[in-house]
Amino acid sequence: MNSACSFPSSEPTAQDRAAAQALLVENRIGPRNGHGKTAVVAMSGGVDSAVTALLMRERGYRVVGMNLRLFSPEDEDHRANPCCGIPAMDDARATCATIGVPFYAVNMEIEFGEAVVQKFVDEYATGRTPNPCLECNRHVKFRHLVQRAKQLGAHCLATGHYVRLETVQDGGRVRLHRALDGNKDQSYVLYTLSQEQLRFLQFPLGRLTKPEVRTLARGYGLPVADKAESQEICFVGNRSYADFVARRRPDVTVPGDIVNQGGDVLGSHKGLVNHTVGQRRGMGIAGTKPYFVLQLDTTANRLIVGERTEAQAVAIAASDVSFTSGEWPVAPFQSDIAVRYRGKPARATVLPVSADERTVTVAFPPESGPIASPGQAIVFYNGDEVLGGGTIERVSRQLPPAEPA
Asked: What is the per-residue pLDDT for 85?
């Protein structure tokens, strides 16, 4: 087992302390209104959650750190990049000791395995593109952390996500907004939060940049101040998504044909799991224009490709749709649409289909739609505000141009 923390704390310099103190102003970290209240802080073992705990303490709360152990690596190779197992838990514990707050760890491996890991494998094996971080937030982190925080009698749950909350005075509705730091914004994976959850949550980092977060961590001598960020899905580690899925579903590595929308064979693939919708390189086929992956046809084991204009969506059908307001729209509305994490939004019309079945259709102007895949999240924005989102079920694309007579 790794030592408690791979990034031992060093005594902060006077300059570090001064820089950190300069950031502790109410319009950046929130009001100091936590006296006599308890805040549970979700501790991942990284610098973001560490500074979240620090800021909640600075705002007067009695802080309780809570870490979820989500996944145990299966082999030594995977352990080179752990971020949700024992080493991360040890880093979270070391941070809590430095700040001087109690620490608890909760084993959620079974729940995480069923709701996130298995779904990730199954979705990829059927040609869809899942978002495990979103599913973890929806089915594991916020569901269970909010529940446990309330059981402890806490007044709120705080996490290190980069988003902002704003409360509307009339009626007290809470609005979810993008973070001020667009490079770190995580609103795309939080559209499922309900009003009940939003009223109980706090996100202290929403008005800070990542460099400012590290400045605060160094100024207070936090042991994870310079810990590197994980850029991969936590349970995949340092292997490819394809390798991770193939170990559990060997059938996804069966070779097959690469075809255009007309069915003409252009080449061969080495397993659909090695490809994703929108992919432009790595197919080993040549053309006068670049080819993009349009569809993974798992029934016929074919990789369907086309030109960029053929890849762009003209309409998207989404299911499992929710709105942060808790209210279903009664009429179509214009919205900025995102289909990938920190992706450039596209303007479109959202047409409500069924409130009971929670389905909508999103229509894009010609040649302006995104390249999207079933399984991805589609999120609706009004400027910086998150309105809601859902799961892409079907993508309608532009048909290829007719052959000349």
From this structure: 72
Q: Which residues pair with 64 in a beta bridge?
A: 40
Give the CATH number of the domain where residue 342 resides.
2.40.30.10
- Are 352 and 262 members of one domain? no
Same domain assignment for residues 386 and 275: no
d(CA 75, CA 331): 52
**Bridge partners of residue 42, in order along the sequence:** 66
Judge residue 27's burial from the number of C-beta atoms within 10 Å of its C-beta, 0-12 exposed, 13-18 middle, 19 or more buried.
exposed
Q: Beta 156-158 vs 103-107: how paired, if at all? A: unpaired
Q: Does residue 80 or residue 133 have the better pLDDT?
A: 133
Task: Say whether pLDDT at 22 is over 50.
Answer: yes
- Could you tell me the pTM of the whole model? 0.90
Catalytic residue (one of 84, 96, 133, 136): 136
Catalytic residue among 5, 83, 96, 234: 234
User: Does 234 participate in catalysis according to the annotation?
Assistant: yes
Q: Are residues 144 and 270 in the same domain?
A: no
Does residue 83 have an active-site annotation?
Answer: no
- 252-262 pLDDT per residue, tens: 899 999 999 99
Please indicate, yes or no, whether residues 292 and 322 belong to a single structural domain of this protein: no
Residues 330 and 350 sit within 8 Å (Cβ to Cβ): no
Expressed as residue numbers, the domain containing 372 is: 312-397
